[in-house]
Amino acid sequence: MTKAMNSKDTEHDVVVVGAGAAGLNAALLLGRARRNVVVVDAGAPRNAPAAHMHGYLSRDGLPPSTLLELGRAEIARYGVRLVRARVDEIEPGPPAWQDGEIGFSVRLEGGPVLGARRLLVATGLYDELPAIPGVREQWGKDVLHCPYCHGHEVGDRPLAVLGTHPRAVHQALLLRQWSDDVVFLAHTLDLTPADRDRLEARGLRIVEGPIDHLVVEDGRLRGVELADGRVLPRAAVFLFPRMVPNDQLLTRLGCEKDDAGWVVTDRTGRTSVPGVWAAGNVVDPRAQVVTAAGMGAAAAFAVNADLVDEEVRHAVERRRAPAR
Questions:
Q1: For the residues of 34-86, what is the DSSP string, one character each?
Q2: Residues 279 and 29: beta-carbon distance below 8 Å
Q3: Do residues 147 and 171 touch, judged by C-beta distance below 8 A?
Q4: DSSP state, 8?
Q5: How far apart are CA 37 and CA 263, in angstroms?
Q6: Number of other CB atoms surrounding residue 73 within 10 Å
Q7: Each residue's pLDDT tens digit, 109-135
Q8: Is 136 exposed, middle or buried (0-12, 13-18, 19+ CB in 10 A)?
Q9: Are 302 and 265 in contact (CB under 8 A)?
Q10: In 17, 78, 116, 149, which residue has its Cα 20 to 30 A from 211's Cα atom?
Q11: Which residues pair with 263 in a beta bridge?
Q12: What's the gap between Cα 117 and its chain centre?
């Protein structure tokens, strides 16, 4: 349950931005470590269109919304506050009660400013979809991305892979193990001779020509219509979206990026900016729900250890300080 904020709620050991699997799992472990934690949730999970999630041991087939509901209830048991808001800006600077140390001021949209000794960003990514009529409407239903997430559910049915991204060839080669009837729709993708050899050797049929729209009846995909009027009946189609990280908060803080444009972290999620960690899809587009949860756990361990190191250092300094 979301709790109302008041003035005494604005100072925290850790502010977690993002309440998906990564953010909630980090908050759970930090709450169990008796840290003062607040989670800021903008309420826009990437997998909201999906009816079920898969590949998560003991949670296979669970609706994503149910996982988040369970997670919110669990963190509340350990005193973690959840704030429904969007973060406008994060400014480096120590909290008022910890002058001279690492810290951050997290400014909420139309709300208070939260002080944080450490920061964990788990804001995920968004999928940029091709402008083909019907794709966005069916996204997460019978227009799919991950064979590992959805391949079993559509196995042995007529499938298609849309050639809207260079990674679509690999996606099609992978998907073939779930169905004997997979068509690769080249669309505007310029296939190399090597790509064609690999697709055909794997038993996929290549169909040339741009796609006009998806054929949808009664809310269900029925096929794909090409610009020349041909209609290919299909039960589901796969595409590889352009994945764009929601990393504006990290980049404004100066976090280093790699050549591919993703924020760089170590194995614990620590970024190049002291006191800032990141976990989940905001730094790893390949992370499934279970992976993101594990990344959140690793970050929580590291954040707590960093805080302990700081606290021990202060305790030693106080012990060694001459009596006044």
A1: T--EEEEE-S--TTTT-S---S-TTTTT--HHHHHHHHHHHHHHTT-EEEE--
A2: no
A3: yes
A4: G
A5: 24
A6: 10
A7: 987 899 999 999 999 999 999 999 999
A8: middle
A9: no
A10: 149
A11: 257
A12: 24
The single-letter code of the amino acid at 225 is E
pLDDT digits (tens, 9 = 90+) for 163-197: 999 999 999 999 999 999 999 999 999 999 999 99
DSSP tag of 263: B
Hunting for tokens 């996606």 — which residue is that? 171
- In eight-state DSSP terms, residue 241 is P
| E-assigned strand segments in the chain | 11-17, 37-41, 81-84, 87-92, 104-108, 113-121, 125-128, 143-144, 159-162, 182-185, 205-207, 211-217, 220-226, 231-233, 236-238, 242-245, 276-278
The values of phi and psi at residue 153, to 5°, are -70, -25
d(CA 187, CA 211): 6
> Can you tell me the distance from the alpha carbon of 261 to that of 283, in angstroms, rounded to the nearest whole number?
10
Counting DSSP H helices and E strands in the chain, the numbers are 8, 17
